[in-house]
Amino acid sequence: MHRATIVCLKALLVAMIALLLVCQLFVVPGVAREFADAYPDLGHLEGPGIVVAVLFLLCVQVVLVCVWRLLSMVRKSTIFSESAFLWVDVILGAIVVATVLIAVSMVTLAAANVASPSVMLLCALGVVVGAGLALLIVVIRGLLRNARQLQQDMSEVV
Known about the structure:
Blueprint: H1 3-38, H2 46-75, H3 83-112, H4 117-157
Helix pairs in contact: 1-2, 2-3, 3-4
């Protein structure tokens, strides 16, 4: 992979992490406060909503940091080392946690009878996308393992 491509990707990762941090610190609490003010009978969901949203965004940030580390391994040509699997496993774990957070939020909103059908549909979409991403990472992990084995086999031949 070209050095310029990796540098551009890392710059985008930094921008995404910074924007997510701004969202965690300012946007999520602000929106939660506005929602609680607009719907005082749902004010009790403000705190848990903030916690779940911040944790979800943290999961996204963890994935971005892991992608950064994997890009660094690509640059150093060490992507087929055993340590790459750690970063892929952390990505998988973060996706699973984020998906569980969406599912728990969906159940909580449904139990409180406060979610509109469109919110429930978005939550269901989030769970399906999360499950799909998790399965995709499992496939990618298997491909990485196969590529690592092929590289080892080739190094023995040469």
